[in-house]
Amino acid sequence: MEQMRLEYPLGMLCRVLKVSASGFHARRSRGPSRRAQEEPRLEIEIRAAHQRTRQTYGPERLQRDLAAHGVRVGVHRIKRVRRHLGLRCKQRRKFKITTDSRHSLPVAENLLEQRFEAAAPSQAWLSDISVLQQRGKQIASNWLEAREAAQEMEDDDPPRSACRGWPQTTLSGIGQKPLL
Questions:
Q1: How many domains in the chain?
Q2: What is the DSSP letter of 69?
Q3: Tell me: the pLDDT tens digits for 50-94?
Q4: Torsion angle (degrees, nearest 10) of CA 156, 128, 99, 132
Q5: Does a structural domain hold residue 98?
Q6: What distance in Å separates the CA atoms of residue 48 and residue 51, rounded to the nearest whole number?
Q7: Nearest-CA neighbor of 53 among 33, 82, 29?
Q8: In whole angstroms, how far apart are CA 131 and each of 16, 127, 137?
Q9: pLDDT (tens digit, 9 = 90+) per residue, 82-122?
Q10: CB 21 within 8 Å of CB 14
């Protein structure tokens, strides 16, 4: 209202914002509230607790930590202050095993034997060896490899190094669009 007062009369602003003129003047003469005065100290406490807990505690655990250090504050206030300060807790991702080395599929031989130099372009092609599953069937991890493997599997005698021993029915029908 202070900024708009230069352009509009006070009576109109009070009517539009549904506040009384006396309430506006009382608010101007009053100092900041007790809660507003506590805010800078609370920001410091929350920042310190955030660092102390290795940035891993959410608001509920942070509330318990602050209470243990003598600061009593509600969870929603902690959420609001953290949002204002831009603090977020680090989330640990669950370790997921992505490799299944115990399979009965044939393993392609190592033709390069750790020699990665090539005399000319397109003599050695490399790709990721990850295997993804979709609806119980194994598919390749990149689409170039999948298309090439599908084309080779359609031949009578596909080279086993390209398709990594996948069954012929696995990659048939893979087109340009991703399946995932």
A1: 3
A2: T
A3: 999 999 999 999 999 999 999 999 999 999 999 999 999 888 788
A4: -60
A5: no
A6: 5
A7: 82
A8: 64, 11, 10
A9: 999 999 988 878 888 777 778 788 877 887 888 778 888 87
A10: yes
**Same domain assignment for residues 5 and 57:** no
- Token couple for 31: 């100092």
Query: Is 60 exposed, middle or buried, given 0-12, 13-18 or 19+ CB atoms closer than 10 A?
Result: exposed
Instruction: Show the tokens assigned to 27.
Output: 């608010």
Which tokens is 87 given? 């603090």
Six token digits for residue 108:
């392609």
> Between 75-85 and 59-68, two packed helices, what is the crossing angle to 10 degrees?
110
Q: Name, in order, each residue with C-beta under 8 angstroms of 53's C-beta and a sequence gap of 6 or more.
A: 61, 62, 65
> Hey, what amino acid is at 109?
E
Domain extent at residue 154? 107-113+124-180
